[in-house]
């Protein structure tokens, strides 16, 4: 007999949790659709050749790989076996892996289907991804990402559209946020004027951690690769410039830096046209870890809750190049549904009415009433209401207890009297009020409420 | 550079296909919810100890197994490596697998969460499963199952409820079907009176194929394991009994057989109370391959389309026993979404209005109009409409071509005149009719239509 359990880093969800999670996904999905984004779907299993090398060495380590079926050792790298070299053996016994994010599969998808898609193309996907990270609180090996991207256009309207969309999502979810915006070209400009061109990647990786580890640690990190302390302090000073015009002045000797400022200005002009509910602020120290970003970048933080970023994205000029299609510029946003779920759970932000599934449960006093109730349940469902029925004529007390624990708004109670008079007793489970109505009256009542 | 491709047996879906598939899933889900079923969710990755041994030897072969991360060879079965014994090595280098169906994970779930769930418990799940079957037309390695089950009650109301639900699903999808019903106890009774008790499993497996391979091949198959031809013919004769009362007479010497007939009778009595749109017929030769069924069984076939069964299910008395919880009787139905999709595609059964995502696309004649359009799009979205906008002020002809190919019902066209007069030109993309309205007028018009 198997002892039941689930893998570390994965989760089962109870009905209430599923309803809560669906509320988040449905809210985000409906806003994606409202902005013209189209749903696409890619397989959970991708060829390892698609995934490997796209997320850095660390990412490659974190890919879940699927063992080839059948007698996989027969075709395995025999030398790797002899030397017990796991890393080398893998590619000969595993061809497939679980997707690590929704971005690389999307790039592959655009390349493979470029003749079936019209560019510019807006797509969304709300699907699980897998990472073999060490499981810990709030970090899972299997989790949902919610992405929207528009590819095939350099227009800065898209950045404003996505920030507008993001603003609307968090307004709908009732989570006050700050949306931070920067531009990788501004960072390049700062690196340029500070003489950090050659260390640009290390520079962005380090300042990405400014929030978490503080200025002194960042300086240490960059000193370790040979950057002078004064250079770093100079760069950090520039990163904290608050106005775009001052920054423009400071970057007057960097073409790319000026371009970054101009893009941010154009982005803000677009955004001002439509307005926003949440704060949208320029933050020169925002870097985003991922190296494929090349233009505007965004990151969202909850205002009233200590938590890492809950959404983020940016523009990438050459995501599909790695699959052989050059010159497709795109911009995207990804919502961290798991963190959003954690915040909403902790702050009890789920609207109860949206989580309710069944409007009523039918309970019966005896066998005949049970059958009568079966007919009434069918009638109520025909009118579109979600109705549960206790599935056997069990002791009434037991049925009532079940109804209470199940959080049904109403119980429909049937005994001999109801049966004989062809009616129902409807009990409001919150206040205990009961009334006797016919099925048709109940339908009318519910339809008008 | 990776050459893009996806694993055999998996699929990418284009936006229209996603909309079509979502239509199927949403239709089924909304009916599950209407009948009081609650959504649950289990991980894609399960421990192999949960999956192995639950689907027979063949099933074990078809499980996708996930390679342990890190230096997996260090902890591997060294003897198995030396002997290049793939089958034996697997358990020491792979702890997890992809779920093979939604039923075994559900049984595990009920056992693990029995203190958090109220029995009887109705659950639904619409999620992908994986099987390393040889890919072929209509058979995929990654596909969606749609299951509803009610566990913790022996009441035959449940069987009728599920058949009623099934009837409603196919009515909603506009696919005329025949719902076949039988009871495994009837089959046991027939086996008993024919002296086939000891070969019951082989008997059910063979008659399950009666449709496909015909009577003579079934006789051959059972002769091969030592059953006399006359016995098989006798059993097949009984299987084709059309009325329950005749069958009751024929099974008068089998207690289990009589019980099966009585259960079918009670099921039909319940079903008659609520009626049904599609044919529900008793079919004594219906066996269902899966060995865990113990009571009523169902199978659904499309009436006007040559295709295997598109839904099926039945009662199982001890699904959770294998995980240590005895005595939980349940009954479930599983919809074959992929086959349903194939039928609906072939017969063009998708209602177009349900597949439409964006109501309009905003097109602009020049840069200023593009900005004006950006504001109008935001306004229309605020009123709840799904609006796309061509994301840059490209050549108008190019934008118009894009709008035509994108199947938008309306295009909202903006040029200098519209801008100056603060209005929009709305073009019906089907008939080419154009009218000039203000944004508020358009909102009013659309809200009333």
Summarize the topology:
2 copies of one chain form a homodimer.
Chain A: H1 15-34, E1 38-39, E2 45-47, H2 48-51, H3 56-61, E3 65-66, H4 78-82, H5 86-93, E4 96-98, H6 103-112, E5 121-130, E6 142-151, H7 157-172, E7 177-183, H8 184-194, H9 200-207, H10 210-213, H11 215-223, H12 229-239, H13 244-250, H14 255-274, E8 279-282, E9 296-302, E10 311-316, E11 330-336, H15 337-346, H16 352-355, E12 360-364, H17 367-382, E13 387-389, H18 396-405, E14 410-414, H19 416-420, E15 424-428, E16 434-437, H20 439-448
Parallel strand pairs in A: 1-5, 7-8, 12-13, 12-14
Antiparallel strand pairs in A: 2-4, 3-4, 5-6, 6-11, 7-9, 9-10, 10-11, 14-15, 15-16
Helix pairs in contact in A: 1-7, 7-14, 8-12, 8-14, 9-11, 11-12, 13-14
Overview in brief:
With 449 residues, chain A is an alpha+beta fold.
Write a structural description.
The structure is a homodimer of 449-residue chains. With 449 residues, chain A is α+β, with helices and mostly antiparallel strands. Chain A folds into 2 domains: 15-63 and 100-346, Bira Bifunctional Protein, Domain 2 (BirA Bifunctional Protein, domain 2); 356-448, Anticodon-binding domain (Rossmann fold, 3-Layer(aba) Sandwich). Chain A has helices at 15-34, 48-51, 56-61, 78-82, 86-93, 103-112, 157-172, 184-194, 200-207, 210-213, 215-223, 229-239, 244-250, 255-274, 337-346, 352-355, 367-382, 396-405, 416-420, 439-448, and strands at residues 38-39, 45-47, 65-66, 96-98, 121-130, 142-151, 177-183, 279-282, 296-302, 311-316, 330-336, 360-364, 387-389, 410-414, 424-428, 434-437. In chain A, the strands form 3 sheets. In chain A, strands 1-5-6-11-10-9-7-8 form an 8-stranded mixed beta sheet. In chain A, helix 11 (215-223) packs across helix 12 (229-239) and helix 13 packs antiparallel against helix 14. Chain A is globular, with a radius of gyration of 28 Å. The mean pLDDT of chain A is 94. Chains A and B meet through helix 1, strand 1, strand 2, strand 3 and helix 5 of A and helix 1, strand 1, strand 2, strand 3 and helix 5 of B.
């Amino acid at each position: 007999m198997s002892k039941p359990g689930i893998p570390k880093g994965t989760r089962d969800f109870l009905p209430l949790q599923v309803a809560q999670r669906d509320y988040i996904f449905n809210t985000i999905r409906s806003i994606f659709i409202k902005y013209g984004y189209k749903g696409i779907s890619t397989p959970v299993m991708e060829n390892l050749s698609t995934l490997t090398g796209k997320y850095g060495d660390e990412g490659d380590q974190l890919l879940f790989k699927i063992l080839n079926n059948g007698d996989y050792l027969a075709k395995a790298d025999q030398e790797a076996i002899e030397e017990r070299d796991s890393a080398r053996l893998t590619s000969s016994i595993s061809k497939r892996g679980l997707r690590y994010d929704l971005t690389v599969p999307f790039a592959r998808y655009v390349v493979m289907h470029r003749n079936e898609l019209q560019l510019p193309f807006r797509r969304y996907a709300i699907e699980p991804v897998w990472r073999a990270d060490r499981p810990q609180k709030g970090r899972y090996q299997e989790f949902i990402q919610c992405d929207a991207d528009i590819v095939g256009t350099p227009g800065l309207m898209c950045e404003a559209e996505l920030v507008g969309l993001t603003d609307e999502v968090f307004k709908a979810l009732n989570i006050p946020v700050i949306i931070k915006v920067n531009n990788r070209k501004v960072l390049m400009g700062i690196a340029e004027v500070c003489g950090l061109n050659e260390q640009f990647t290390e520079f962005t990786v380090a300042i990405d951690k400014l929030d978490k580890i503080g200025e002194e640690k960042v300086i240490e990190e960059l000193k370790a690769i040979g950057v002078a302390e004064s250079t770093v302090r100079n760069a950090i000073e520039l990163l904290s410039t608050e106005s775009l015009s001052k920054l423009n002045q400071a970057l007057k000797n960097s073409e790319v830096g000026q371009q970054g400022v101009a893009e941010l200005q154009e982005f803000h002009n677009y955004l001002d046209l439509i307005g926003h509910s949440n704060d949208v602020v320029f933050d020169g120290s925002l870097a985003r870890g991922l190296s494929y970003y090349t233009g505007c970048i965004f990151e969202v933080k909850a205002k009233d809750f200590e938590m890492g970023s809950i959404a983020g994205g940016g523009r990438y000029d050459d995501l599909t190049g790695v699959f052989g299609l050059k010159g497709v510029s795109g911009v995207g946003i990804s919502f961290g549904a798991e963190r959003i779920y954690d915040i909403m759970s902790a702050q009890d932000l789920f609207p109860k009415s949206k989580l309710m599934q069944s409007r009523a449960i039918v309970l019966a006093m005896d066998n005949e009433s049970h059958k009568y109730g079966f007919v009434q349940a069918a009638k109520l469902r025909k009118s579109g209401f979600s109705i549960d029925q206790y599935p056997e004529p069990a002791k009434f007390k037991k049925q009532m207890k079940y109804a209470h624990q199940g959080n049904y708004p109403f119980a429909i109670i049937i005994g001999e009297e109801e049966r004989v008079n062809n009616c129902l007793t409807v009990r409001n489970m919150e206040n205990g009020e009961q009334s006797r109505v016919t099925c048709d009256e109940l339908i009318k009542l519910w339809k008008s409420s």
